[in-house]
Amino acid sequence: MIVNTAIVVGGGIAGCSTAHALAHRGIKVTLLERNTAIASEASGNPQAMLYPRLSGDDTASQFALMSYLYSLNFLKTLNLSPADFNVCGMLQLGFNPRELARIQKVAAFFESEAFVKYVTAEQASVLAGIELMHDAIYFPNAAWVNPQPLCQRLIDHENISVKTSISINKLLKNNDLFEVYSNDKLIEKADIIIIANANEAKNMGLSLPLKTQAVRGQVSIVNASAMSTPLKLIVCSDGYLSPASHAQHCLGATFSTDAMDLSIDELDHQANLVRLKSYSMGLYENLKDNICDGRVSLRCSTSDYFPLVGELLEGSALISRPPRPNATATSLPWIKGLYINVAHGSRGFTSAPLCAALLASFICHDNLPMSDELAGLLNPNRFLLRKLGLKRLARMLATSSTTNINKPISS
Ligand SMILES: Cc1cc2nc3c(=O)[nH]c(=O)nc-3n(C[C@H](O)[C@H](O)[C@H](O)COP(=O)(O)OP(=O)(O)OC[C@H]3O[C@@H](n4cnc5c(N)ncnc54)[C@H](O)[C@@H]3O)c2cc1C
Predict the structure, then answer these.
(1) Which ligand 1 atom sits nearest the alpha carbon of residue 254?
(2) Is residue 271 classed exposed, middle or buried when 0-12, 13-18 and 19+ CB atoms within 10 A define those classes?
(3) Do strands 160-163 and 170-174 pair parallel, antiparallel, or not at all (unpaired)?
């Protein structure tokens, strides 16, 4: 099938990078966003950190590292202003015995690589420009980016038209074209649709095999002080402190799967300060009365921490007519042309650009930007297949990405 037109639902980093990747390949894209501006929800913090969390050579680390290197290189091509994209570096601190063991393992595993280096507390303090109490691993090319200008740059393309203040509540496939509806009114038609609206993907009026979880998070905005202004890079424990931008730091972030209230919570500010205290008592004392604002939004996560990226199966058809364990991938009830790019958890600015490139490669039948095995781990249908007891099928799909679905699934 030749794809000429696409609709992307959702204008966060996942939607904007998917629109960009498709437009770059000559596809006319309409991006639909329910807010008045793009990057208004999870993708709307003042600073987003770009970094990988590694543990060794497991598939999660491979995906994290590949995403990080891809995202950094990609962002460098976008000519963002230095005020909006700063390759400042990051220290991940060994602030407790478990984290110390992890960073030592990572440093040993990637000993010969330039992208990460083990540093002592003294060396870390010199690199940071402030005193730190723990050894760390140093990522010299880690960066922070201002999400709004980044997302705007991604959609500034002659093949992309953006419509804001449109909340999509229904998707339909009518003959070969997809239709999207807002308040049950037809808004747009296209050859394919990419769902990139995070936690709302489940509410599109279709039976989709999605299993995602909303995770509330709050960042604290902290006025820089004479002591904190010299901070040159991002410091990361189980949270992060960014170097000041416009004389303010981002101190983050909390995690909650209970409360989904989007108002700022004073207790969350205190929780962010406690994270700071765990690695710099001096900075904690100095900044604890400097919190001037905060921002709350919802991450969208999966239980295995991999995003959901690829073409979708029809959930109800799968449940009512479960495939035999030895079924072929082609015999499954695919909704041809319906794709998804969601569930980027805590690191969407690292993972979404690579996932967008992966989706565009599926759609345009290009070479994939990652191995079939990694691409398969992102398969958005994996949870329902496993729930139906089709673990073998889910595992086989994990090693035969949707570009290969015409191949029989062998045992
Ligand atoms: C406190 C906090 C701190 C974080 N810090 C970092 C960080 O430092 N680095 C990092 O990489 N990540 C960070 N993250 C995670 C990151 O923000 C997310 O992974 C990322 O923003 C997800 O992007 P997204 O496009 O999938 O979702 P979103 O940004 O939420 O975008 C989804 C969009 O879809 C729109 N939408 C929803 N429903 C509809 C509909 N029906 N019709 C039309 N539009 C719709 C929404 O309005 C929204 O704009 C943080 C998250 C939180 C909460």
Answers:
(1) 1
(2) middle
(3) unpaired
Distance 312 CA to ligand 1 centre (A): 21
Amino acid identity, position 399: T
How many angstroms separate the alpha carbon of residue 386 from the centre of ligand 1? 27
Handedness of CA 36, 42, 46, 47 (dihedral sign): negative
C-alpha of residue 64 to centroid of ligand 1, in Å: 18
Closest CA to 141 of 117, 122, 105: 117
DSSP H helices, 111-146, are 121-128
Q: What is the pTM for the complete model shown?
A: 0.95
Residue 313 and residue 118: Cα distance in Å, rounded? 44
CATH level 3 topology of 5-42+149-208+303-404: FAD/NAD(P)-binding domain (3.50.50)
Domain boundaries, the chain: 5-42+149-208+303-404, 86-144+213-299
- Calculate how far, in angstroms, residue 198's C-alpha sits from the geometric centre of ligand 1: 7
In this structure, the residues whose C-beta lies within 6 A of any atom of ligand 1 are 9-15, 32-35, 40-43, 45, 48-49, 167-168, 196-198, 200, 217-219, 252-253, 297, 299-300, 342, 344-350
For the CA of 144, the nearest atom of ligand 1: 8
Encode the chain (411 residues) as per-residue pLDDT tens digits.
Answer: 789 999 999 999 999 999 999 999 999 999 999 999 999 999 999 999 999 999 988 999 999 999 999 999 999 999 999 999 999 999 999 999 999 999 999 999 999 899 999 999 999 999 999 999 999 999 999 999 999 999 999 999 999 999 999 999 999 999 899 999 999 999 999 999 999 999 999 999 888 888 899 999 999 999 999 999 999 999 999 999 999 999 999 999 999 999 899 999 999 999 999 999 988 999 999 999 999 999 999 999 999 999 999 999 998 998 898 888 788 888 889 999 999 999 999 999 999 999 999 999 999 999 999 998 899 899 999 999 888 888 777 776 765 544 444 333 322
Ligand 1, pocket-test mutation among 7, 38, 349, 354, most atoms within 8 A of CB: 349
Residue 296 parent element (H or E): strand 291-301
CATH number of 86-144+213-299: 3.30.9.10
Query: Which residue out of 154, 155, 238, 346 has the highest number of ligand 1 atoms within 8 Å of its CB and is therefore the one to mutate?
Result: 346
Tell me how far apart the alpha carbons of residues 261 and 297 are, in angstroms, rounded to a whole number.
9
